[in-house]
Amino acid sequence: QVQLVESGGGLVQAGGSLRLSCAASGPTRSSYAMGWFRQAPGKEREFVSAIYWTGGGTYYGDSVKGRFTISRDNAKNTLWLQMNSLKPQDTAVYYCAATRAIGNIKSIRLYDYWGQGTQVTVSS
Asked: I need a labelling partner for 82 at 20 to 30 A (CA). Which of 18, 36, 63, 113 fits?
């Protein structure tokens, strides 16, 4: 069973940066992909970024492309999300997720394992 623990959330001013981490335990080498999703109050959980665990190919949602960078350290079983040029509309709970299934890497329905979420608040 894959266990995911997020950290790094907090309060930051607009234009600032945060780096989120997701520590994974369990059989992460068998994972197909890992990703980040976020959910703001009153809105559906949306795709932020994802990465293929083995090959390292990356994908980004349109709203964060050019500002966020996803990366992984396979040896340390850790997933990262570097968030730069943060905007108030980035305020949300951010979730780390993993999947062993093969499919649309941007789809929330693909992911089987989820972290508890970490709050990111960007002040204007």
From this structure: 113
Q: Is 97 helix (H, G, I), strand (E, B) or coil?
A: strand
Is residue 60 a contact partner of residue 122, using CB atoms and an 8 Å limit?
no
The residues, ordered by sequence, that sit 6+ positions from 36 with a Cβ below 8 Å of its Cβ are 20, 22, 48, 49, 50, 70, 79, 81, 94, 95, 96, 97
Tell me how crowded residue 45 is: count the other CB atoms within 10 A of its CB: 16
Give me the DSSP letters along 1-14.
--EEEEE--EEEET
Q: Is 67 within 8 Å of 82 (Cβ atoms)?
A: no
Q: What is the pLDDT along the chain (124 residues), one digit of tens a residue?
A: 789 999 999 999 999 999 999 999 876 566 789 999 999 999 999 999 999 988 889 999 999 999 999 999 888 889 999 999 999 999 999 999 999 888 999 999 999 999 999 999 999 9
**What is the token pair recorded at 109?**
């329905």
CA angle 57, 37, 116 (to 5 degrees): 120
What six digits make up the tokens of 58?
Answer: 């990356």
